[in-house]
Amino acid sequence: MFMRRGLSGVFLLLFPVAPMCVSNLSWSQSSAGSEESTDFAYHSTVSEVRLVFFAGDEHNRPVNQLREDDFAVVDEERVIREFRSFTQSGLTKLDVVVLIDCSASVLPQFGREIGEVVQLISQSPWGAEDKLSVLSFRGTEVRSICSGDCRSSFTSDQVAALPSGGATPLYDAVEVATNALAERKQAEVWPVIILISDGDDTISKASFREAAEKVMDNGVQVYAIDLGSGTPSHGTAVLQRIAEDSGGRRFRIGEGAAGIFDEIVSDLHSAHVLTYLAPEWGGDFHSIRILPTHNLNLQFRCRRGYYRRSSSAP
After folding, report:
1. DSSP secondary structure of 186-221
2. Strands (E), the chain
3. Which residues of the chain does CATH 2.60.40 include?
4. Chain centroid to CA 293
5. Which of 37, 205, 251, 311 could form a disulfide with 260, with the two C-beta atoms 3.0–4.6 Å apart?
6. Which of 224, 245, 246, 248 is nearest to 236 (CA)?
C-alpha cells in the first residue's frame, strides 16, 4: 500500500548490476521453507541510484503530474533534491507472469478463481507491447499454460483442464517465475509477477527468504491476489511481505479480480523514474524514503533501500 509521508519499501535499480546467476528450473520434494524477516536490496559498486516509485493522493489515486520539487528523497538521512534525471513514466513495457496456485489449499476458491482470472486477463488494459504469460503450480510441478501473448491465446478451457489439489510449492514457484523473467530481461522492460494464492507453502525446497531475495535481486515486482478467507493468517502475511518488499501491493480476491487487474495495470503504467548520485558516506546498507515537500497528502511507494559497496569490493 502507499505509505503517507514516508516509505517502507523501495523499488530500486542500480546500473550496471553485477552478473546474476539463474538457477536450473528443477523440482524435487523436500521440507517446506520457512518465512524469515529480513531486508532485501541490490548490491552494486556504482554511485548512481535509479529509483522507480509511485505517487498517489490521499485516496490512493495515481498522481501523474508530479514535479521534481514536489518531493525529496531521503537517503541514509541525507535529503536529496537534485536529481540527474526524472521522468513521468520511464517503464511502459511490461513482462508479466500470472502465477496461479492450483494446490489443495485453494480448492474451495478454485472454481471462482478460474472465471475471474480469465475475465481479468481478457479485459485488463494491457499495452500493445506488454507480454503476458500464465503459469500454474501444485505438488512439485510448475506448468506453463501459455507464454508471451496470453491476451489472445488464453482460454477458460485451458485453466479448467489444469490438475488441482496436492501440496503447495509457493516459494519454489515464485523462484521459477522469477528465473523465467530474468532469462529474458531487457533494460526497457519491467518484470512483474501477479501471484494468485492464499500464501500457504507446504513443500518448497526454497525458503521464504530465498524466494524473496531472488525477486529483489532480479528487480521483479510482485502483486499478490490473496485467495484467503479474509481473516489474518500466516499466508496473508507472506503475501503482504513479499509484495511490499518488492514495491508491489496485495489485494483480496473479494475486491473483484477484474477491478484488481485494472488497478494493477494502471499502477504499473503510472510509475515515476529518477536517478541521483548516492551519498559518499554511510554504511553498506542505505535506507531510502520519499517525502512530500509541499502537498502533505501525497503518498509514495517504492522499495526499501540498497547496498553500496566500496570500489574494491568484488
Report:
1. -TTEEEEEEEEE-S--SS-SS-HHHHHHHHHHTT-E
2. 3-4, 11-14, 42-44, 48-56, 71-75, 78-80, 85-87, 93-101, 131-138, 141-146, 189-197, 221-226, 250-252, 272-277, 285-292, 299-301, 305-308
3. 3-17+35-89+270-308
4. 27
5. 251
6. 224
- Cell numbers of 289, please? 524514503
Domain ranges in the chain with CATH number 3.40.50.410: 93-268
180, 133 contact by CB (below 8 A): yes
DSSP symbol at 109: H
The answer to whether 276 and 80 are in contact (CB under 8 A) is yes
Instruction: Give dist(CA 156, CA 103) in Å, integer.
Output: 18
Note the maximum CA span of the chain.
Answer: 57
The CATH number of 3-17+35-89+270-308 is 2.60.40
Q: Across residues 54-82, what is the average pLDDT?
A: 91
Fold of domain 93-268: Rossmann fold (3.40.50)
249: left (phi over 0), alpha (psi -120 to 50) or beta: beta
- Dihedral Cα 263, 259, 9, 313, nearest 10 deg: -70
pLDDT, one tens digit per residue, over 149-178 is 887 777 667 777 778 899 999 999 999 999
Report, in angstroms and rounded to the nearest whole number, the Rg of the chain calculated over CA atoms. Answer: 19
Q: Is 152 helix (H, G, I), strand (E, B) or coil?
A: helix
Give dist(CA 1, CA 60) in Å, integer: 8
Question: Which distant-in-sequence residues (6+ apart) come within 8 Å of 185 by Cβ?
Answer: 95, 191, 218, 219
